[in-house]
Design goal:
heterodimer; A: 311 residues; mainly alpha; MetI-like fold; 3 domains; 12 helices; 0% strand; B: 269 residues; alpha/beta; six-stranded mixed sheet; 9 helices; 9 strands
Chain lengths: 311, 269
């Protein structure tokens, strides 16, 4: 390897740096890099690696995706499924009849606004209640054992089965949608937060034990910050689920004239307006991606300085 | 825990009186009396052990792996209760250096060094002043705002040392602190410990399985047998402080190391 015979008094030369970067990029673990003992560079990506991973790669996949879509529209649907191509309209048509049509566009905008509203409120409730539950469960093993089954049950319960129940408690509108959203998205927040709070390094706990600190100090100065990386994993999963929850919820609870994007899509499906239907789906997907990335950025801002993102 | 004598564990003060009358030496900073440890699973980790560490003494315990050396420190600090026997020590005045640096990854060097003073409820200014002083002392000035992930193993250990210094402990417990760093870094950290010891004159209890580290640092060395660990040898180290790195190559140093090594081989038998 390039490190053999390296002059320790000078820094690594440009060529050596490049070799390391290429090897790192190809997934080969560098065994005993002598620099690892004295200088640590956690953000060891070079500019080219970043460019490929953040722009070129995703762009190539986007092109591939569009090409595949067009192929299925023109030929694949008939060839593989013996179905007509209009069931999967060309993206150009989707764009033209969906996004460029001002009436349809307005429906998309209102739809996504209502869905976002339900998802954001639902997710916020999930975050607050979920973290609170996890903190309570982290206090004692018996509390965790007692509460966990109900959480799993809530997660496993099909929404469809309790539609009448939700309807009678929360009404047939926005309140019920938010409830569904919370029901679907709270589980990963509780589990990930609980995991983070309870898997703090033993020596770190002992460090606090030696100073005889109370529960609250231990929670706020040790467990909670240590759990932040896991908590953000939970947020990310829950964010996607909250969008799903909002869309599922609005299918069942439509009163109040607040049609979400899922209902908009459903109405187009009923009228067999497929381009408009796919447009609505694309809008829904974009919302999911947006919340996912929002939490990615938030995580970077909050813990990026000290935590190396393994993903 | 069922043993009656375990209940007498944290009684600082009363057993000390007979020590004072028994001996003309000053009060030990740390006393072990008949301390033994059997874990709930039946492992007899530590046989009956008694010894003192006086202020200004640096005692190192060497012994084979699993002989209960670390258990001694855990008992001294109150993290574990002994099965029998008791320990006297001023718990509030203990500094504990863990095997790993155990830095909180979300805190900078400054934040980590401040931690214990902060937990103790010292004022912000006082906390900052003490942290800065000890960061300077261990040679980490200029690295105050680094996070642990940006630091080498040696730097992390220095930060860990600085952290334990912040409350100005009278008793310093070191649990094999430099086991994970390379030889060169370890020697540098040993120099650091020597200079801290000369400055602060605490009572030191150091655990290691490196004989040369033990001889280099200590005023006295206790050799422990294999499990259940008992003290089977005691060596006084005659070298003057400050000890310079070249001391390791003095004939007397090698001779003493040889004797200890011999005692340790007996410990395995």
């Amino acid at each position: 390897m390039s490190t053999v015979g390296r002059d320790v008094t000078r820094g690594p030369s440009a060529s050596e740096e490049r070799v390391d970067a290429i090897m790192a990029g190809s997934g080969i673990a560098l065994g005993a890099d002598p620099r690892a003992t004295e200088s640590v560079n956690p953000t060891g990506h070079n500019a080219r690696g970043t460019l490929v991973s953040s722009i070129v790669g995703p762009l190539a996949f986007l092109v591939l995706f569009i090409l595949l879509w067009e192929y299925f529209h023109r030929d694949g649907m008939r060839r593989f499924f013996d179905k007509p191509g209009f069931l999967l309209p060309s993206l150009a048509t989707v764009f033209d009849q969906g996004f460029l049509d001002s009436v349809v566009r307005q429906q998309y905008i209102t739809g996504i606004a209502w869905t976002t509203f339900a998802a954001v409120i639902g997710l916020s409730i999930s975050i607050v209640v979920g973290i609170a539950l996890a903190v309570v469960m982290a206090q004692a093993r018996w509390m965790e054992r007692s509460m966990y089954p109900y959480l799993v049950a809530a997660q496993a319960l099909p929404v469809l089965a309790i539609v009448p129940l939700i309807n009678s408690v929360f009404g047939g509108g926005m309140g019920a949608r938010i409830f569904v959203c919370v029901m679907i998205s709270i589980f990963p927040i509780v589990t990930n937060t609980l995991f983070g709070l309870t898997s703090v390094d033993t020596s770190m706990h002992e460090l606090f034990t030696l100073r005889g600190v109370g529960r609250w100090t231990r929670l706020t100065k040790l467990q909670f910050p240590a759990a932040l990386p896991s908590i953000f994993v939970g947020f990310r999963i829950a964010a996607g689920l909250s969008v799903i929850g909002a869309i599922v919820g609005e299918q069942f609870f439509r009163s109040g004239q607040k049609p979400g994007i899922g209902v908009v899509a459903e109405l187009f499906r009923q009228k067999s307006r497929f381009p408009q239907l796919y447009g609505a789906l694309i809008v829904a997907v974009l919302l999911g991606i947006t919340v996912f990335f929002f939490f990615g950025v938030l995580r970077k801002l909050v813990i990026g300085r000290w935590y190396d993102d393994p993903t | 825990m069922a043993d009656e004598s375990a209940n007498a564990l944290p009684t600082t003060g009363e057993p000390m009186t007979d020590i004072l009358t028994d001996e003309s030496r000053p009060t030990p900073a740390l006393q072990f009396r008949g301390v033994s440890m059997t874990f709930p699973d039946g492992t007899h980790a530590l046989g009956e052990t008694s010894f003192d560490v006086h202020p200004g003494e640096f005692v190192t315990v060497v012994g084979p792996s699993g002989c209960g050396k670390s258990t001694l420190l855990r008992i001294a600090s109150g993290l574990t209760h002994p099965s029998t026997g008791w320990v006297t020590v001023e718990r509030a005045g203990i500094g504990y250096v863990f095997q790993d640096a155990t830095l909180l990854p979300w805190r900078t060097v400054m934040g980590n060094v401040e931690l214990l003073a902060e937990l103790e409820g010292l004022s912000k200014d006082e906390t900052r002043r003490r942290a800065q002083e000890n960061i300077d002392l261990v040679g980490l000035a200029g690295h105050e705002n680094k996070y642990p992930r940006q630091m080498s193993g040696g730097m992390k250990m220095r930060a860990s040392l600085a952290r334990s210094l912040v409350l100005d402990p009278q008793v310093f417990l070191f649990d094999e602190p430099f086991g994970a760093v390379d030889e060169i870094t370890r020697e540098r950290l040993n120099d650091e410990v020597i200079s801290l010891f000369m400055r602060k004159r605490f009572a030191g209890l150091f655990i290691t399985h490196s004989i040369s580290e033990a001889v280099f640092l200590s005023t006295r060395i206790l050799v422990m047998s294999a499990r259940p660990g008992r003290i089977i040898g005691e060596f006084h180290v005659p070298f003057e402080y400050p000890r310079v790195p070249d001391l390791r190559f003095e004939p007397a140093f090698g001779e003493l190391s040889g004797e200890i090594s011999h005692a340790l081989r007996g410990a395995h038998a």
